[in-house]
Design a protein that fits this description.
The chain folds into 2 domains: 149 residues, 2-Layer Sandwich (Alpha-D-Glucose-1,6-Bisphosphate, Chain A, domain 4), CATH 3.30.530; 110 residues, START domain (Alpha-D-Glucose-1,6-Bisphosphate, Chain A, domain 4, 2-Layer Sandwich). Helices cover 26% and strands 35% of the residues. It contains 6 helices and 14 strands. The strands form 2 sheets. An 8-stranded antiparallel sheet has the order 1-2-8-7-6-5-4-3, covered by helices on one side. A 6-stranded antiparallel sheet has the order 9-10-14-13-12-11, with helices on one face.
């Protein structure tokens, strides 16, 4: 599979994924546009009524292009999905472009679509398919971390002479991450657990904690704030803000965030 990201001036991001399927375009077209076939691999319960497309919950989307058996495009909340099918010998080239506002969620989207396309291929082959929800967390976490590397998702969202801010989608829920990092050992007035520090950062006492959500501590020149919030897909979004820092700390935090992600992925 070929994957890449495009960042747009308006802040939106497009994920492009492509795979060759050993099935003719007409058969692939039915699999991606007919609800009875979508039920075998798509991550939501789809209904289609005219140019409206429903996903079982949340607002309906709108079909923006339908050109059988080549192009099927539709919206899903704030996202845009475009499926293109091109003949390739006796098979097809399937290209998915997914445009969304959350760049840091790209690895979660890619992991999900990777899993779905495997189920799509199994369905086309006539093999049994496992629902998206049955994928084991450890397997999904490993795929997610692979896509972080493939897509080049650097966690540094901002860095200047007064602060460093890193944002990174993780592959586990916040409560599991908090436990793995020993967040429960943090108490105001005492040093933070080692997992919440980075080489070269001199941690002062913890100033605030919220279980599974937040940990703050002082440093000689400012403060460090860890936040675990709702992320894209099955995991939490980690945001680390180190105020009073400078750009020399970026590398240390980048390496440490990669180590945390590896610990979370298991």
């Amino acid at each position: 599979m070929n994957e890449n990201l495009t960042l747009h001036p308006d802040g939106r991001t497009t994920l492009r994924m492509q795979r060759r399927l050993p099935h003719p375009p007409a058969k692939v077209w039915r699999a991606i546009t007919e609800p009875q076939h979508l039920a075998h691999w798509f991550p939501a319960e789809v209904t289609i009524d005219g140019d409206r497309i429903g996903y079982g919950e949340g607002p309906d989307g709108r079909i923006t292009e339908m050109n059988p058996p080549h192009v099927f495009a539709h919206t899903w909340q704030d996202d845009e999905l475009r499926w293109e099918i091109h003949p390739d010998g006796e098979g097809s080239i399937l290209t998915l472009t997914h445009t969304f506002p959350d760049r840091h969620g790209a690895a979660s989207f890619a992991s999900g679509w990777h899993t779905c396309i495997l189920a799509l291929l199994a369905s086309l082959d006539g093999r049994s398919t496992a629902p998206y929800a049955t994928v084991q967390p450890a397997d999904f976490a490993r795929i997610h971390e692979d896509y972080i590397a493939i897509l080049g998702l650097d966690p540094v969202a901002a860095a200047d002479d007064t602060a460093v801010r890193l944002e990174r989608q993780l592959a586990r829920p916040a409560d599991e991450i908090w436990h793995l990092l020993h967040g429960g050992d943090a108490t105001p007035g005492t040093p933070p657990p080692a997992a919440f520090t980075a080489p070269g950062v001199q941690p002062g006492p913890v100033t605030r904690t919220e279980t599974g959500k937040l940990l703050e501590y002082d440093t000689p020149g400012g403060s460090v704030r860890w936040e675990l919030a709702q992320g894209t897909g099955q995991g939490a979004r980690l945001v680390i803000t180190h105020s009073g820092a400078d750009t020399s700390t970026v590398h240390a935090w980048r390496v440490h965030v990669a180590e945390v992600a590896a610990t979370v992925a298991g």
